[in-house]
Each structure stands twice: as C-alpha cells, then as structure tokens.
Amino acid sequence: MDRPVYVLGTGIQKFGRFTHLTHKQFAGPAVLEALKESKLSHKQIDVAYASSLFGGSMIGQQILGQLGLTGIPIINVENACSSSAVGVHEAAARIAAGRAEAAVVIGVDMLTKLGGGALPLNREDWDAINGLSMPVLYAMRAQRYIHEFGLKATDLSEVTVKARAHGARNPLAQFQKPVTLEEVNSSREVADPFRLLHCCPTGDGAAAVVLGSERLLKALGSGLRPVQVAGAALHSGKYHPGPYSMTTSHVSTQSAKEVYESAGVSPEDIDVAEIHDSFAIAELMYYEAFQFCKPGEALALLRSGATSLGGRQVVNPSGGLMSRGHPVAASGVAQIAEITRQLQGRSGAHQVKDARLGIAHVTGGGVSNFEHGACAVTLLKS
Question: Tag placement on the chain: N or C end, fewer CB within 10 Å?
C-alpha cells in the first residue's frame, strides 16, 4: 500500500435474534461505537462503505442518515458473504492512495426476517434451480474430503465442539453454550454428512470499523495499540464450466499466498485467524488453504489443540461463523473488528495471548461454474 492504513475504531453488536429492530436501527449503535472508539467526529469521515444483502436498497444512506453522517460519498457494496470485507478492502485502498483520510465501513444483515431455512439464491442460476444450496454444496465437499483423506462423518463434529467452546467465552456470540460430540452427532440431519450443528446459524448481526491514515493516528494519540492493515487480497473465483476440485479452495489459497507474499510474512507467523467456517468442513479445508498444515492433515491439526485457545495458532477465537453467527454481509467486517481487538489485547475471556499478527478471511457466494463468487483476505498487525 502507498500510505499506511490503520483501524482506528471498531463496533460489534451482539449477534442473535432481534426481530423487533430494523436493519438501520440495529446497525446504528455499531457505527457509533466505532466512531467513539476512533475519537473522530462526523466531520472527519471522508467516505463510507455499507453492506447488506437483505436490508434493502441504499442501506448506507438508511443507516448513516439517522446518525447525521451525510453529504459524503456513501458507497453500497454487495458481494454475498464477502460484502463488508470488500468494503474494508476498498476503503483501505482509497486511504492508501491519498484519496481520503478516514472511512467508516458497515456490515449488517438480519436473517431472522427471512423466516429460517437456507438462504434464498438467484433463481436464474443453473445450480440454484437444481437444488445446489450452500448446505448441499459444502456437504458434497465434505463427502469428497472424507473419501480422499479417510475421515469419518463424525470427525466433523470436533470442529463444532471447538467453535462452541470458543463462542461460550465471547459475550457477543449468538451461541454461548458449549456442546458435546454426542449432541452434535445426534442433531437432525440436513445434507449427508451434515447434521444441524455442523452448519452455521442464521441470525442477525452488525459491525463497523473506522479506518484512517497514519497522520490521523498520530494526531489522535489513542491509548489503544495501533493496528495496521498490513495486506489485503480480493479475488473472484475463476469460471470453470467443467469439474473442479471439491477439497481444495483455489481462490482462498491464491488470496492467502498473495497476502503473505505482499506483506513478507509466512503462514507460521500468524498468531490468530478468523476464517470462513460456514460449515464444519470449511474450517478443515481452510487450514490447508492458509498453509497451516499440509493437505489431509487438518483433522490432526485440530486434534493437536494448535488452533484452539491456548494453542500456537488460534483459529476463530470468537466462535467463528459456527458460533458467533453468520449474518452474511456483517461477517467480514465483524472478523476484522475481532482481529483488531485481539491484537490490542482486549478480547477478555477469548483473548489470544500475545497476538501480534492476525488474518481475516471470508468467501462470498456460490455462482454456477464458479468455485466462489468472491474471496477477501485481510492481514492485520500490531
């Protein structure tokens, strides 16, 4: 990046079910929290990026209008689950290029308003109209992974148990109760080999961050440890009109490699990561995409305790999408807010000890003949 970019403030609403609130009512407090933490006034914000899949048009104007933050460019971003992470990527690029000094990025979705079940997909998409919903797609990946590497379906339950153990320590998580292997394995079937507790929940969530230049950081004199956006990668999946690997995420692997190389770090340097564990198999696949282990060794890595709180390379200390929740467009910016707080040493009971380098990763959407619609990876350092 041309100029250093820093996270100056974070705001995260507790994820859960808030059916009595509108999108703008729910997101507003997250923005105010991030602004208060940044010590910036409304007049110092140069640009805003806002994301929501189900909040209606002009979501940024809806949210910021009620807060009096108007007259600036308000850019609404939709890229499925990657939406708000893309907003962070674009805001950081604008500041790095000298086109802004400060930006606010918001993500919000309230999935309880959809009434439950799998998220609705584009009815013009060939895969969607033939029944390839997200649970089905990831179930196919799980089946192939199990076949190739000799796992049992019940092995996937260990991912859920870890996620719920972490979420139980996070007061902002949707699920704050640990579960046992028996509870996961006896939950109702969804798509073979998945049971309900192998899948992330639907729910409501909102988060925001304020990004700023180094000049602003020095002028503010914050008592918090500075956290820099040290690298960012954004890619769409490649169009493949034929078969592609079900056990390897090519776009995530490419994005991770690009971020490592641009920042001059290696996978071993990462202290904490928030990765896209929308289904239990995803966490295992992404261990490999981020080179935390070799292909086929993800389960052994999980069982070693290395990715659990207290381990050498903690993954999803917040509980991840499996426990914190996955309100789609809110997830990317929530991950970045979580990593920022981890690097500042203020995550309370789910704090990763001595974390200095963290990574956030979110993939967006399934579109016919694409492995993923979008993938955003953000590297943060303190």
Answer: N
19 located within any domain: yes
Rounded CA-CA distance 219/217 in Å is: 6
Q: What is the CATH number for 166?
A: 3.40.47.10
Q: Is 81 a catalytic residue?
A: yes
Q: Which of 81, 200, 293, 375 is catalytic?
A: 81
Task: Give pTM, 2 decimals.
Answer: 0.94
From first to last of the 382 residues of the chain, give the pLDDT tens digit. Answer: 489 999 999 999 999 999 999 999 999 999 999 999 999 999 999 999 999 998 999 999 999 999 999 999 999 999 989 999 999 999 999 999 999 999 999 999 999 887 766 666 666 665 656 556 778 888 989 999 999 999 999 999 999 999 999 999 999 999 999 999 999 999 999 999 999 999 999 899 999 999 999 999 999 876 788 999 999 999 887 766 655 677 788 889 999 999 999 999 999 999 999 999 999 999 999 999 999 999 999 999 999 999 999 999 999 999 999 999 999 999 999 999 999 999 999 999 999 999 999 999 999 876 666 666 789 999 999 9
* Residues 7/227, Cβ–Cβ less than 8 Å: yes
Together in a domain, 159 and 48: no
Give me the phi and psi of 100, to 5 degrees please. -160, 155
Looking from the CA of 293 toward its CB, the CA atoms found within 13 Å total 20
Regarding whether 170 and 207 lie in a shared domain, the answer is no
Q: Which of 167, 188, 220 corresponds to the end of one domain?
A: 220
In a domain, 121, yes or no: no
